[in-house]
Design brief:
Its main location: membrane. It comes from Myotis lucifugus. Keywords: Cell membrane, Cell projection, Membrane, Phosphoprotein, Postsynaptic cell membrane, Synapse. The protein is an alpha+beta fold and about 280 residues long. It has two domains: about 100 residues, Potassium Channel Kv1.1, Chain A; about 100 residues, 2-Layer Sandwich (Gtp Cyclohydrolase I Feedback Regulatory Protein, Chain: K). About 30% of the residues lie in helices and about 25% in strands. The protein is built from eight helices and ten strands. Strands 4, 5, 6, 7, 8, 9 and 10 form a seven-stranded antiparallel beta sheet that branches. A three-stranded mixed beta sheet has the order 2-1-3.
């Protein structure tokens, strides 16, 4: 009696479409979950080629079995949205149109490329107009600029505003209040304030992953710093012309050791900085 052959990754071309109804993708470290028909909704696109003409076992998968695509995980959300309903909807003040157009070209979506072209042209036109207006303003005010002191660092020309940084910490305090407290390191320094000011002060050390779509003139309380040294944050604020105007801190006892009677306290501290 002939034994049935064991299933393997080698299938005929008729079996290549045997993908699950719900497909999980890992795009540049970002996980997306969508329906199989969405991925093959644009004939001739790269995703259509991957999920209709290739064997599932021939595609790269991560350690959790998700199909891996080595592209920009943040921008892929707009690619996937387009493939769902053939429309392009971007947030206000979206600064990544050029990069998104490059992603559309990579995924072989010519209609999406066409939709992005007018937006890119408009951005370039606005940028050129701003440059021209800046030159005219500079020419108009050149006499005033020449009268500035040679020792002026230019900080007076920067925008005024407030930036608040906060952190949660913990420390252990013994029964004897005179005993030195044992502090633990700061886990994360949060940043609150206007987006443009936060980026100006902290630059590449600012982690924007929790609030990536905010335009420059909006406010956020979800950014945090990639380092955890308060003194480093203070130095950056001082270099940008900010000075501290207020601070506050709260502490709460969270747990007590039964054997030592030591108490573990948690605290939240905020520092408010201002540039006039």
């Amino acid at each position: 009696m002939a034994m049935p052959e064991k299933s393997s990754c080698t299938k005929s071309s008729k079996d290549f479409s045997h993908f699950p109804e719900i497909v999980e993708l890992n795009v540049g470290g970002q996980v997306y979950i969508t329906r199989y028909p969405t991925l093959v909704s644009v004939p001739g696109s790269l995703l259509w080629e991957m999920f209709s003409e290739k064997n599932p076992c021939s595609l790269i998968q991560d350690n959790k079995g998700r199909f891996f695509v080595d592209r920009d995980g943040f921008l892929f959300r707009y690619v996937l949205d387009y493939m769902r309903d053939r429309k392009l909807v971007l947030p206000d003040h979206f600064p990544e149109c050029g990069r998104l157009q490059r992603e559309a070209e990579y995924f072989k979506l010519p209609e999406l490329v066409k939709m992005l072209a007018p937006k890119i042209n408009m951005i370039n036109s606005v940028a050129n107009d701003l440059c021209q207006s800046d030159l005219e303003e500079l020419s108009t005010n050149i006499d005033i600029a020449c009268n500035l002191s040679s020792t002026n660092t230019g900080s007076d020309l920067k925008k005024a505003g407030f930036i608040t940084i906060g952190y949660r910490g913990s420390y252990t305090l013994g029964r004897d209040s005179q005993t030195d407290a044992k502090f633990r390191r700061v886990a994360r320094i949060m940043v609150c304030g206007k987006i443009s000011l936060a980026k100006e002060v902290f630059g590449d050390t600012l982690n924007e992953s929790r609030d990536p779509d905010r335009p420059p003139e909006r406010y956020t309380s979800r950014y945090y710093l990639k380092f955890n040294f308060l003194e480093q944050a203070f130095d950056k604020l001082a270099d940008a012309g900010f000075h501290m105007v207020a601070c506050n801190s709260t502490g709460t006892c969270t747990i007590t050791h039964d054997q030592t009677d030591d108490k573990i306290w948690t605290s939240y501290t905020e520092y408010v900085f201002c540039r006039e």
